[in-house]
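User: quick one, sequence for these tokens?
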């Protein structure tokens, strides 16, 4: 089985590629802009016909698209998150129409949730900013492509290797900088929001299941931890793992808080469809994920 992974250098993509390489009988190809890539695939700028030629040579049985932008201006987000999947689907229709496409979407596509009501895949989508809107545009491109495709809408990923571009990684970086200084003060933004956190290793396992499942899959499947966790609890748990002895001040203007908290105060995904279609449920608790995040960044 030839599996082409796009975006394998990113946080989710690296875990996905590692998990796929452990799959018996799988030949994993890497697509991207790096000279070391097996397939030259810059989804933000490549023309569909050029990408189709690359796909024809690679002849993948499955394509996993982990490429995406979480930050940057609206133009960058649109190029990567919206144009990228559209070009990808056009190229696959021409060069590898029988290949399965597994595309990573985002729970941000749903927008604000209703407290105590996990959102299902059939819920209306009301993204509140360019990130969620461009991810939704990518999802629409995939689900309307006519391909054998599934979008995995991922909640808030956390776990080993979490980058500082996301909240858990930022908090961990601040705690490492503060150390055990009892005079240290962590000035954070609004931590009142509730988020659905999912271990990145569980996301990677779900991708493998989706890539290898026989027969067609539902067009969209939610991946999450299945419960809404106060962001404040995540910060306190990480502080405990770090042995932080200082003070946490919440509410200050800070990039370490959740910029979406005021607009999306509650988010939780119903993950029952993924269990039915893939036999998937999270294997790692949030405590597991935070411990792996903290231990993974410690200096030997």
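Assistant:
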């Amino acid at each position: 089985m030839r599996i082409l992974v796009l975006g394998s250098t990113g946080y989710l993509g690296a875990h996905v590629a590692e998990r796929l390489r452990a799959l018996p009988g799988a030949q994993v190809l890497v697509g991207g802009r790096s000279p070391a890539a097996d397939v030259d695939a810059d989804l933000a700028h490549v023309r569909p016909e050029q990408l189709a030629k690359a796909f024809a040579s690679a002849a993948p049985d499955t394509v996993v698209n982990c490429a995406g932008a979480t930050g940057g201006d609206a133009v960058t987000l649109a190029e990567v998150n919206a144009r990228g999947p559209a070009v990808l689907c056009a190229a696959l229709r021409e060069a590898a129409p029988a290949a399965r496409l597994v595309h990573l979407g985002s729970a941000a596509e749903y927008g604000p949730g209703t407290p105590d009501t996990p959102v299902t895949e059939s819920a209306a989508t009301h993204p509140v900013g360019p990130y969620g809107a461009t991810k939704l545009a990518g999802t629409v491109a995939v689900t309307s492509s006519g391909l054998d495709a599934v979008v995995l809408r991922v909640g808030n990923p956390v776990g080993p290797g979490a980058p500082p571009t996301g909240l858990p990684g930022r908090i961990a970086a601040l705690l490492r900088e503060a150390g055990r200084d009892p005079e240290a003060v962590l000035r954070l933004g609004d931590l009142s929001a509730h988020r659905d956190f999912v271990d990145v290793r569980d996301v990677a396992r779900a991708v493998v299941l989706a890539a290898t499942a026989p027969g067609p899959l539902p067009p969209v499947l939610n991946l999450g931890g299945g419960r809404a966790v106060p962001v404040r609890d995540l910060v306190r748990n990480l502080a405990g793992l770090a042995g932080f002895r200082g003070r946490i001040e919440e509410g200050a203007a800070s990039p370490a808080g959740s910029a979406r908290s005021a607009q999306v105060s509650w988010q939780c995904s119903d993950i029952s469809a993924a269990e039915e279609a893939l036999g998937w449920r999270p294997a790692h608790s949030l405590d597991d994920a935070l411990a792996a995040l903290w231990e993974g960044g410690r200096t030997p």
